[in-house]
Amino acid sequence: MAISIGIAKKDRETVAKHLSKLLADTYSLYLKTHSFHWNVTGPQFTSLHAMFETQYNELWLAADEVAERIRTLDVFAPGSYSQFGKLSSIKEEAGVPEWKEMVNQLVEGHEIAAATARETIKAADAAGDEGTADMVTGRLKEHEKTAWMLRSLLR
């Protein structure tokens, strides 16, 4: 059955490309945060271990929400490490940095994801896709808030 939600196919595909980048950033940030949860050490261990767990759980749910929005637009969502690696702007961390560097990297990651969200909102607005703009606005606010909370640990 053909999709008829009031957004042209070309516009849905454009928005889905932006959402795919947001999905890749979200998933990459999820993986990094989960790794840091497992591997954090130092005097801040207990608080960071718990904070990272809360954050990676939120990111896991967010990835599903973003992927399902892509499917709502009748476009297939990326779902492999290689696809995410090509789409994401978040740098992979193969090592285990000390806790302050973990926090720095997560601040940077959330700021990158916030910037990706802003670009996605612009594309959604241009396409008249209020559903995507609304969902991504929530993601933007969450990334900005998480970056602020993490940044506060470093002051």
UniProtKB/TrEMBL annotation:
The alphabetical list of record keywords is: DNA-binding
Domain of life per record: Bacteria
What PROSITE patterns does the database record attribute to this sequence? DPS_1
Spell out the InterPro entries in the cross-references: DPS_DNA-bd (IPR002177), DPS_DNA-bd_CS (IPR023188), Ferritin-like (IPR012347), Ferritin-like_SF (IPR009078), Ferritin_DPS_dom (IPR008331)
What region holds the Ferritin/DPS domain? Answer: 17-154
Keyword Nucleotide-binding tagged: no
Q: Where is the signal peptide?
A: none
Q: Name one Pfam family in it.
A: Ferritin
Quote the CDD domains the UniProt record gives.
Answer: DPS
Molecular function as annotated in GO: DNA binding
Q: Does the keyword Acetylation apply?
A: no
What the record says about family reads: Belongs to the Dps family.
Put simply, this protein is called Non-specific DNA-binding protein DpsA
Organism of origin: Rhodanobacter caeni
- Its encoding gene is what? dpsA
